[in-house]
Specification:
Length: 257
Amino acid sequence: MVNFEEIVLTADNLVKQYGTFFAVKNISIQLKKGKSLAILGPNGAGKSTTLKMIYATTAITTGHVEIKGIDVETNPREAKRHIGVVMQDDLLDTSLNVMENMVAHAILFDIPWKLAKKKAERLLKFVGLLNYQKKEIYELSGGMRRRLVLARALVNNPELIILDEPTTGLDIQSRHVFWNKLEQLKEKGVSILITSHYGEEIERLADDVMIINHGEKIVSGPTKLLPAQQGYGNIEETYLGLTGYTKEHEEIEQTLS
């Protein structure tokens, strides 16, 4: 039975500093099992940097991250066993076919070859790619590649999925297929941390949303309640209003007039 009160991710006062520049300033996150949080912000706001600190590919300047109680700085390998990652770039190995990509990723988690193949078959079926397991990567459409990346991210049975703008560039149909798979994972107790520029994506997938700008949190709260709390109609309007888009748009119009 899934314990939906279990805390999967804790990030306390994360700071990332490059010289005198602060890419991230005191971002804190707590995520329970089966819950989802979207981080929304302009390009360069610190979204991807925050994710990279959480899954231990970028050093933390100050702050603390735990995955299932495991410190990502002192024990990154063990922490990563509980995480699946879907980046903007799929990083698929084009020298391997679909099944080989899955098995190679599983072996990184010390999963024996026979078990890796069984897991791969089950996950490829889950994302609708079982009949494409012998296909070369270049033969896949963009939507198929994204589904393959999701399947690959699940090979270690992660309890937290981190997605950095996972559906950018996908057509509407592929995007909805991807969303449907993520919703099924949530129902099974998988926690989701996602960055996105799509208001519809956030409203569908995220229980809570955090809006950041210039590395700092502006506001956070339940996705369904936050717009009304801030005096807006939906998440997209909330984001545009709180990140200064309206003011910038007026300045551009004045310049061009």
